[in-house]
Amino acid sequence: MTPATATALYDVPGPRTRRRHRIYSVVAAAAILGLLAWILYLLFDTEQFTYTKWMPFAYKGIQELLLRGLGNTLRAFALAAAFSLVLGGVLAAGRLSEHRSLRVLATVVVEFFRAMPVLVMIFFIFVALRAQPLTALVAGLTLYNGSVLAEVFRSGVNAVERGQREAAFALGMRKTQVMVHVLVPQAVRAMLPAIISQLVVALKDTSLGYLITYEEFLHAGKLIASNLDYDLPFIPVVMVISPIYIGMCMLLSWFAGRVSRWERRSPKTRAVELTAAGPGTPLPGGEPPTALRP
Predict the structure, then answer these.
(1) Phi-psi label, residue 231: left if phi above 0, alpha if psi -120 to 50, beta otherwise
(2) What is the distance between the alpha carbons of residues 262 and 270, in angstroms, rounded to a whole number?
(3) Most CB atoms closer than 10 Å: which of 54, 165, 198, 249?
(4) DSSP per residue over 161-194, as a string?
């Protein structure tokens, strides 16, 4: 850390501190490398890299099965994400309503579905209501994530400075106009990280579909991993599926970052340059207004 980056909380480290930090870095790196080496040793020792276990991924039928499962996962996520955002917006509007009955109803719905386990809702819709696997999965994810997003939206709107709301009402704007044109655009910036985090949760929760026989990505991997002809390639399936799930989550976060940067460059949110304050309008006596002298 250079003197230019020193802050009130952190002093510039001296020679001993820098040497100690280098030792910590070397020890931490050695520990991480040792852990990775131990994991690789266990994988080789249990014969997880044998040709028999990795052979299924070379077959066209297995590849098509994985691609079909990935497509079903993305379809369930797209539907659940879209419906969750809509439901979250509706419930948030209800919780922010001035009508007490509507506000109480929205609060009960949000608290109930937010406390209910996702898997229980999916099983209830699938078994009790006899819905199709895709419908049950999307409905369960929508009810849960929509309720969580409703709290995110409500908190984001309430986090906007109160003066913004009061100034908009002073200009004669109606409540809907204040919400759409003043509060929501400012709240989106604060809400975006939480929204993306919840959408990542929805993406990962699509894997619960395999419990109700929905042929999503994890279900396809389960079919391959339980195949005795390939010596139960469970670990190879995990090593193939996990990076794809991680990559999809990272892609979603990257997309959110692009949206955030685009919003900052938008003319609607760009800072307006103000001209420097000049002297006031001259009074009839020919002098600008000044403060009262004692």
Answers:
(1) left
(2) 11
(3) 198
(4) -HHHHHHHHHTT--HHHHIIIIIHHHHHHHHHHH
Q: Quick one: pLDDT at residue 164?
A: 77
Dihedral of alpha carbons 10, 257, 199, 249, sign: negative
Spatial distance between the Cα atoms of 148 and 138, rounded to a whole number of angstroms: 15
Structure tokens at 220: 């396809």
pLDDT at 1: 46
CA distances 169 to 31, 85, 95, Å, are 60, 27, 20
Whole-number Å distance between alpha carbons of 76 and 140: 11
Cα torsion 128, 133, 138, 140 to 10°: value is 30
Amino acid at 179: M
pLDDT at 274: 43
Secondary structure (DSSP) of 19-75: HHHHHHHHHHHHHHHHHHHHHHHHHHHTTTT-HHHHGGGGSHHHHHHHHHHHHHHHH
What amino acid occupies position 113? F
Render the burial of 99-118: b for 16+ CB within 10 Å, e for the rest.
Answer: eeeeeeebeebbeebbeeeb
* Number of H-type helices and E-type strands within the chain: 11, 0
pTM of the complete model: 0.75
pLDDT score recorded for residue 203: 92
Rounded mean pLDDT for each run of 10 residues along the chain, 294 residues in total = 50 82 93 94 85 86 92 95 94 88 93 93 93 95 95 86 78 78 79 87 91 90 80 85 90 79 62 49 52 50
φ, ψ for residue 133 (rounded to 5)? -55, -45
Rounded Cα distance, 137 and 143, in Å: 10
